[in-house]
Amino acid sequence: MFGLFLFVLLLKTNFFSLEPQRIALVEKEIPLFVEVFTTSTDDFLLKLDSARNGFGELSKEIDLVCVNLTKGFSFPQTMQAFRQRNNSSALVSFSKALEDYYETNDSANLIVLGEGVFSKKLNAIRSFSSKSSLVGIVFISLSVVIPSLCAAYLAVGSSFLDLSFTGNQVLVLFSITFPAVNLIVSGLLMEKIPVF
After folding, report:
1. DSSP SS3 for 93
2. Contact assessment for residue 26 and residue 86, using Cβ atoms and an 8 Å cutoff
């Protein structure tokens, strides 16, 4: 029963989904893309074509945009497809700012967006680094302190309190239960690490 509850909890938190990680990897490249894209003196479509490489996951998305443009779709249509593929407020804002830059040749919105994404990522890194000591304490207590206290309780309980534990129960507790809890907690903690 507990295993089923835990599995449902992991599904609810998107523990098995790679989409949030992919979105974070795409968002990570926005500030560098904006810096390079807005300082280049080339034509907009040439800059977009040159951005097909060098920006990680964002380059893959830009490549899809360029492929749609060569198929004859308009730039607003390709940006709409970009927004449908990427369900993220930062990427939606990015596509709208890029579309605005295409239509008006004014990069101000794109520059402001790049600075905003950069400061958001920087704040996430600072927040995580300040919380990492607490995370370390929680992980150490779950992996060392609680099993040690449980072992002491089992030793004292079997001697003085007439608690009866079989060898198989103790073996399952220390070889399966505690490591499984550690894996689950470390997996949930790894999900919270911001993408650098």
Report:
1. helix
2. yes
pLDDT in tens, 13-28: 655 567 778 888 888 8
> 125 near 95, Cβ under 8 Å?
no
Q: What is the pLDDT of residues 60-114, one digit of tens each?
A: 999 999 999 999 999 999 999 999 988 888 899 999 999 999 999 888 888 998 9
Phi, psi dihedral angles at 155 (to 5 degrees): -65, -45
Contact (Cβ atoms closer than 8 angstroms) between residue 82 and residue 92: no
Contact between residue 15 and residue 7 where contact means Cβ atoms under 8 Å apart: no
- The token duo for 84 is 């449908």
Amino acid at 169: Q
List Cα–Cα distances, 128 to 163, 190, 195, in angstroms. Answer: 43, 11, 11
CA distance 167 to 94: 60
pTM greater than 0.70: no
How many Cα atoms occupy the beta-carbon half-sphere of 186 within 13 Å? 11
Q: Exposed, middle or buried, 120 (CB in 10 Å: 0-12/13-18/19+)?
A: middle
Structure tokens at 183: 């894996």
Contact 28, 56 (CB under 8 A): yes
